[in-house]
Design a protein that fits this description.
Helix 10 runs antiparallel to helix 20. A hairpin with a 2-residue loop joins strand 1 and strand 2. It is built from 34 helices and 2 strands. The chain has 3 domains: 411 residues, no CATH class; 219 residues, Phosphate transport system protein phou homolog 2, domain 2 (Methane Monooxygenase Hydroxylase, Chain G, domain 1, Up-down Bundle), CATH 1.20.58.220; 207 residues, no CATH class. A two-stranded antiparallel ribbon has the order 1-2. The protein is mostly helical and 930 residues long. The protein is elongated and about 100 Å long.
């Protein structure tokens, strides 16, 4: 941590006697000092003001969207009149604000650059205001009141982030952590006003140690939010070091009721309040960077993209197409999934903006339901893509193309148009947070959607009767699957729209008091992990690291031969408190600690070089005006550092540390105080903290490459289990479908996060890692799991909502050929994932007999999609009813259900074939083929 936590921070200020005299002169009111009431008013007033300002800003932003939607309502009504032929409206585009639109030219340089530059400009400008208090005499009153503005910049850097919700949470947790350590400081010096320098030195010393260990244990054991632990432990290292040092002369308040405004802990608390306020100002002015606003923009854009994708799929599936179009559709679906994935954290963060209150709270609740629906809808859209992929494959093989689809084109296009419009209306309602004035429109669209589904089902049945084998043949199966997937998509849109019309005011039942209590509980995100041994092992490592640095700072290093680190210095403990919670483990330790070295060293040395040189030149030339020119350099450095922090995925932590440790040098060279203490001791203490944290990472953490490989193997077992379950459950229509989708997604997410950092592990540990193989496996496994999920959706009567197994599954499983195909897929999955695990856990020079046996099996196998597809169609066609039952939707059509399941099974086989292909491309396989 920067030197604001140094035990030397307040020795040059007021003496304890002078501070006591100020308290006595101010008198007491209602049993407490004047300083107590000022601090109390600042804390309570700051929290309440923040609450109302944040709620007001987000509510105003949401109401503006409602007003804009009402202005466009007439255009939507005109669009609804001509549903089948009306073209898709223009893509919704949010207004990024003047700075992003004009100053940073978002249209030319990209939205990402403009957004990050806008936020960096705000943070740099406020940091400049804090820095100017050291160089402009007229602003020196900030320092004279005991507020270290360099610490305000540090807190600003660790608090402000990409949206208002995250910033509010970081500010609240940072304030809470500082308040806990300050309150503990009041307890320490309230019981022993002079610390260990008093007459009862041994008693105070014992109490100080016990108090310190209990505080540290509670901070780690209760698993507070990261910012709360960082600021709480960092300040407690300083307070306890001053208390335990008999020679310390720093000024502290003597208890809660005798708070002194110039005391060390009061300066920390007030600096935290100012830092939190500036951080919130960054994301509120001139435009509000709201997480809820981002979620609303994504919802509108995603709903619009869904409608466009459906239209393009239909157009290209009926026309002559090929693999290029399918790849384009696949990229579009991947983009949709990314949008939905981005919406989830935005909605989670938006609670800290609206607290589930008012129109913004209603919008958040409806958007959460829409996000869940969009996730399922994206699966159904991908089912359409997979069906189109097989339609195109038939065209390339010389078979008739889109014969049935051409006849169903009008009905399919009408159905997709109504579904797309209904989805856009649902997204608009979710953004507005109310459906009162659009219920009639939704009801009309639901009726139109049901009518279009019935017409499509009737037309499809009529056309099938005119085809050989009742329309169930090798070339019509993917076409029927495409029609089924669009019908299932429409059914899911209708289900969400019906749910949207139901009044649900649960988000309005939480008042301000409940929101405050919920905010307190949110500071303990890891309470659910308290029973986990892994949780205790990780916290034991972090606690050991912090305590080691604290006691090394207490006893010093090299004191007998020239000081390397002086005694009674809290810099090492304060610094490591900022470093140990910033993510990373053995896999990322090298990268993380390199960032630490660069950030801490570069920020400190640049501060010493730039500020120290300017200070020296100013004193020689007697030119204090030089500091005004220096502010431009300071502003440019802050802007570059914050932009790196916000924009760079690899060096963001470096940018944050450069800004914070550069800010720490501001107080050491200013027009008021001139040149100050050399940074040697501080740098050595910070270096020690980094080395200790690095060693603990390497010694205590597990390797992520091994973890990623084990999770991938577990995923392979789950995929095999899902196929077995599908085969056995289909034998009885009374059984309910068990959805394995959440388990698989969780395993894929865990494997992906571990694999992202596995490549950063130092190779000296002989940990093999094949990055290209891993990336391909992750892509193909994700695709394969979506095929399995669609199989389970189709097998259940309630679709994604669950239900009994459809009769069509039992019909399909009457085919011995299909059962053989499912069993063959299980064997292929088992072999592929076992071989993948062995490839990822062995070096190229290792030889393993079981591994070579699996390799030979793979080389001798035929990587086909489905070997007996024609036989399956023949066997299933023989048991299907001659006259299909009349249904209102293709989702309930038994023939289309069978076609959908068969198509998704073939798509799964194609994905497993891709996995086998990347395994064959490994060097060991080439050696076997020679």
């Amino acid at each position: 941590m920067p030197d604001t936590s140094s035990s030397k921070g307040h020795e040059d200020g007021l003496s304890q006697a002078e501070a006591n005299a100020i308290v006595a002169a101010g008198g007491h009111f209602l049993g407490a000092s004047e300083g107590f009431w000022i601090v109390f008013a600042c804390c309570v007033g700051g929290v309440l003001l923040t609450l109302f300002v944040v709620i007001g800003a987000v509510t105003l932003q949401t109401r503006r969207r409602v007003t804009q939607a009402e202005e466009d309502e007439s255009e939507d009504e005109e669009e609804q009149k001509d549903l089948p032929t009306d073209p898709l409206p223009n893509k919704p585009s949010p207004d990024p604000g003047f700075l992003q639109r004009v100053v940073f030219n978002a249209g030319k340089y990209g939205d990402g650059f403009a957004f990050n530059a806008d936020l960096s400009l705000r943070a740099a400008f406020l940091s400049l205001l804090c820095a100017s208090t050291y160089f402009i005499p007229a602003l020196s009153w900030w320092q004279s009141n005991g507020w270290e503005m360099s610490y305000v910049i540090v807190l600003l850097g660790f608090t402000v982030y990409l949206d208002l919700g995250t910033t509010v949470f970081l500010a609240w947790s940072g304030f809470y952590g500082t308040l806990l350590s300050v309150a503990n400081c009041w307890l320490l010096f309230g019981l022993y006003p002079n610390g260990t320098s008093s007459d009862n030195n041994s008693e105070a010393m014992l109490f100080g140690y016990v108090n310190f260990f209990v505080f540290v244990w509670l901070m780690f054991g209760l698993n507070f939010a990261t910012n709360a632990k960082m600021f709480g432990l960092s300040w407690q290292a300083y307070f306890s070091m001053c208390f335990l040092n008999p020679g310390d002369r720093s000024v502290f308040s003597r208890g809660l009721w005798d708070i002194q405004l110039h005391a060390g802990e009061t300066g920390a608390l007030m600096g935290t309040i100012w830092g939190c306020g500036f951080a919130l100002l960054c994301v509120l002015v001139p435009t509000c960077m709201s997480a809820l606003g981002k979620a609303q923009d994504l919802a509108l854009e995603t709903a619009w993209t869904h409608g466009r994708l459906l239209q393009h799929v239909l157009e290209h599936s009926i026309a002559k197409g090929g693999r290029q179009e399918t790849s384009t559709f696949g990229a579009e679906v991947k983009k949709l999934r990314e949008h939905v994935k981005q919406m989830e954290p935005h909605l989670a963060n938006s609670w800290w903006e609206c607290f589930d209150l008012g129109i913004a709270g209603r919008s958040k609740a409806r958007l959460s339901k829409l996000c869940t629906a969009l996730e399922v809808l994206t699966d159904w859209a991908e089912a359409s893509i997979l069906a189109v992929e097989q339609v195109f494959e038939q065209s390339e093989n010389g078979q008739d193309h889109a014969r049935l689809l051409s006849k169903l084109q009008p009905e399919l296009y009408h159905l997709s148009s109504v579904a797309g419009l209904l989805l856009r209306v649902c997204a608009s309602i979710a953004v507005q947070g109310r459906a009162d004035d659009r219920q009639d429109q939704v009801q009309d669209l639901l009726g139109a959607l049901g009518k279009e589904e019935s017409q499509l089902a009737a037309r499809c049945q009529a056309e099938r009767q005119q085809l050989p084998q009742r329309g169930f043949s090798l070339k019509t199966v993917p076409e029927l699957a495409l029609a089924y997937s669009l019908s299932g998509y429409s059914r899911q849109v209708a289900a969400h729209a019906a749910e949207l019309l139901e009044e649900d005011d649960t988000w309005e039942r939480r008042g301000l008091l409940c929101s405050f209590l919920y905010g307190i509980c949110a500071l303990f995100p890891g309470l659910s992990e308290l029973q986990s041994w892994k949780y205790y092992a990780e916290n034991l490592k972090l606690m050991t690291t912090f305590l080691a640095c604290f006691f090394v700072g207490m006893y010093g290093i090299g004191c007998a031969y020239g000081v390397i680190i002086p005694t009674w210095s809290s810099t090492a403990g304060g610094t490591v408190a900022y470093l140990i919670f910033q993510g990373g483990n053995k896999a990322a330790a090298l990268k993380k600690n390199a960032d630490r070295f660069m950030g801490v060293g570069l920020g400190t040395l640049m501060g010493q070089l730039i500020l120290g040189s300017a200070c020296s030149v100013s004193q020689v030339l007697h030119a204090p005006w030089l500091f005004y020119a220096l502010l431009l350099i300071v502003f440019a450095l802050f802007f570059a550092s914050f932009y790196t922090y916000f924009a760079s995925p690899n060096f963001g932590y470096v940018g944050l540390l450069v800004a914070c440790f550069f800010a720490d040098q501001l107080g050491k060279c200013s027009v008021m105080v001139g040149s100050s203490l050399n940074n040697y001791e501080i740098l050595m203490a910070q270096l020690l903290a980094i080395i200790v944290a690095s060693l603990m990472d390497v010694l205590a953490d597990s390797t992520q490459s091994i973890k990623a490989t084990e999770v991938l193997a577990e995923f392979g077992s789950l995929l095999e289990t899902a196929l077995k379950t599908f085969e056995t459950k289909g034998s009885s229509s009374e059984d309910a479908v068990h959805f394995h989708r959440p388990e698989g997604l969780a395993l894929l997410s865990s494997a992906s996060s571990a694999g992202d950092v596995a490549g950063k592990e130092p190779r000296i540990l002989r940990l093999p890692w094949r990055a290209e193989l891993w990336e391909n496996l992750m892509d193909y496994c994700s695709e394969a799991w979506r095929c399995v999920s669609l199989l389970e959706y189709t097998a259940a009567e309630g679709g994604a909502h669950g239900g009994k197994v459809r009769k069509a599954v039992a019909v399909l499983l009457t085919s011995p050929a299909y059962r053989r195909e499912i069993q063959q897929l299980q064997l292929r999955a088992s072999r592929s994932f076992n071989l993948s695990k062995r490839f990822l856990m062995h070096d190229y020079l290792d030889h393993d007999l079981p591994m070579e046996a699996l390799e030979m099996q793979l080389l001798e196998s035929h990587k086909l999609s489905l070997r007996e597809k024609h036989q399956v169609i023949t066997e299933v066609g023989a048991v299907l009813p001659t006259t299909p039952a009349s249904v209102s939707s293709l989702v309930d059509d038994q023939l289309c259900e069978v076609a959908m399941i068969l198509t998704m099974t073939e798509a799964l086989a194609v994905r497993l074939a891709k996995v086998e292909t990347v395994l064959v491309q490994q060097p060991e396989m080439w050696l076997l083929m020679e």
